[in-house]
Amino acid sequence: MSSMSSVAGLSKYIKTLPKTKFSIIGMLIISFLIGSTYYLIDLVPNQGIIQDLILGGLFGLVVLGISSIMSGALNQQTISAVHGINLKIKHSMFLSGLSMTILGIIILLGCAISRVFNVDIFINSAIFGCVLIYGFNTLVFWATSKVRFTIAAVTGLIQPVLILAMYILISFLFIDTSFMGPVLMQVIFKALVAAIIFVLAIYAFIKIIASPFKKNLGIGVLDLLSLFIKHMNEGSNSLETIFVDMSEAIETIVTFVSFKTEKGIKALFISPSVHPGPLGDIGGSNMPTILANKFDNFTMVAHGPSTHDFNPIAVSEIDKIENSVKKGLEKVQYSPYASRFVRYSSEKAKIGVQFFNEGMVILSTFAPEAVDDIEFGVGLTMMAQSRNRCNVKNSVIVDCHNSFTPESGEVLPGNSEVFQLIEVIDTIDPKQEEHDIKIGCYENNMEDLDKQEGVGESGIKTMIVEVGGQRTAYVLFDANNMEIGFRQEIIDAVSDLDIDEIEVMTTDTHTVNTISRGYNPIGIAKRAEIIEYVKISIEESIKDLEKVEVGTGTEKIKDLNTFGPKNSTELISTISSVVAVSKIIAPVLLITSLFIAFAWIFFGGL
User: Fold this and answer.
1) pLDDT tens digit string along 544-586?
2) Distance between CA atoms of 120 and 541, rounded to whole angstroms?
3) Cα angle at 313 between 310 and 319, to 5 degrees?
4) 82-94 residues labelled b (16+ CB within 10 A) or e (exposed)
């Protein structure tokens, strides 16, 4: 399982929040119920169940509900006024509703304890609850809105202050207030000291976890988190500005096969050694679609040998891949000849090989075994070895990326899979008969399927290659890997169609990794519908068959700004270490501060 994608899996914690009106309705209902419950178990003599329910409900509605709705609006306006991000009105209202519910539960617990033990801790319970939601709100504003700590701390005061002020106002208007004067200053002082204790603990916790990011990568962890959330909520690419600061320029390659008729290029099959990540629409995540759309003809962008180290840091970097391909196309020499598609295997490694003019395509898979990305250095070794053995100028290596489990590991130097790939390439017969070539193409966006089913923007693209009477289907899904076993299911399902060979590939697009699963390989859901698309694509591609000439090319991509081997590993290790440390520090620091605040509120004397 790739480290970067495991971090991308954290996106599952970002949920779609309810609309504003539902949060407001929820606050009104919950506050009424809290007030009614409070009056039913209050220490004062009951006025009757119905009257207690109504009066208590109205009390809770005004003190908790109305105050929280007001704070939801004020919080959003305040953060917006200081140019904070992410806190839209629906987010603010939901946060206020959640905070109000937490406060209400604490008040009811205090009320119940007061009833059972015949002590009055209502005021202390309310103070403790307000301190708790103050710290919670401050943490959320600071961590997600890209504002300074002082602004977050001041904004966090709005809801608890409004609730306490509304309680005091209602008490002065409708309840005996003779006791309020002597205790008001005490309440304020208790709340102030407890709030300072708790919020300083939050400040210390954030500073502790932020230090490794600043030291190792020179970036702010809260900036990273805020912009990540902005991307998930709005599709913003602002996160790329952080990646620019930690990027590393690399030199890699792109290989391709070009098919042309008398009218010009009919189809391109491109395999860039650039990784389509990290997730969503950030960096090169949608590279297969963006790159393909830069060409006027049918274009398949397969997954070349590369890992998350080679994630472009910005969408604009994809232009460099385009330019390299177009530069290489100017040098291509075409021929009307190709070989039949032949399969080879060695232990778990399997390859499909087809020669095109002075080049060859190698489709690599370990299915039904599960592996993740093939590292660039391993890919280069495969290219050099195959060129040498088969005496070709260009070797187009494709990582079919079609057999996945959450435990899938990358193919890295030193892994046994590397030697299996080397061994299987040594079995290739370089003497293949040449025949005329025809190709037919078809693409479909699969509009009734989407990211939820693991299908990216480009859907499915199929190319039928007919050589010497043999028809081979190259089927490419715009998806991030494939559920283990689904490849074979597809192959079996199309066995009665007018083709002789088929290989199923995925682009490894990471645009589908923004939903709850984090990882989202195609084939988890709606397999029958997906297979039907495969059948249609093959039948339509056969109808499109026409004679072509073919040429291959290899071109360097220079100064491609990526995460880079060093920074990619550093980012992952830093995140992993911070998460591990936080599991220890967070409970110790925050729970300790809450205990001190609790002791101060309930047992501190004035």
Assistant:
1) 999 999 999 999 999 999 987 767 667 777 777 787 888 888 8
2) 79
3) 90
4) eebbbbbbbbbbb
The single-letter DSSP state of residue 253 is E
Distance CA 229, CA 218 (A): 20
Asked if residue 393 has pLDDT above 80, the reply is yes
**pLDDT band with cut points at 50, 70 and 90 for residue 177:** low
CA distance linking residue 336 with residue 175, whole number of Å: 95
Tell me the two tokens of residue 544. 């499109």
Task: At 514, list the tokens.
Answer: 């923004």
What are the angstrom distances between the C-alpha of 37 and each of 54, 100, 108?
A: 10, 15, 8
Per-residue DSSP letters for 295-310?
SSSEEEE---S--GGG
For residue 194, give the amino acid letter: A
Q: Read off the tokens for 312.
A: 């472009």
String of DSSP letters for 432-470: ---EEEEEEEEEE--TT--GGGT--TT-EEEEEEEETTE
In the chain, what's the furthest Cα-to-Cα distance? 103
In eight-state DSSP terms, residue 175 is S
CA distance 127 to 106: 10
- For residues 116 and 121, what is the distance between their CA atoms, to the nearest angstrom? 11
d(C-alpha 516, C-alpha 519), whole Å? 8
pLDDT digits 0-9 by tens, 38-71: 888 774 555 667 777 888 889 999 999 999 999 9
Can you name the residues that pair with 433 across neighbouring β-strands? none
Asked if pLDDT for residue 517 goes beyond 60, the answer is no
Would the CA dihedral through 572, 577, 583, 586 be positive or negative?
negative
What letter would DSSP give residue 411?
B
Out of 32-36, 265-269, 543-547, least confident range:
32-36
Q: Which residues face 547 on adjacent strands?
A: 438
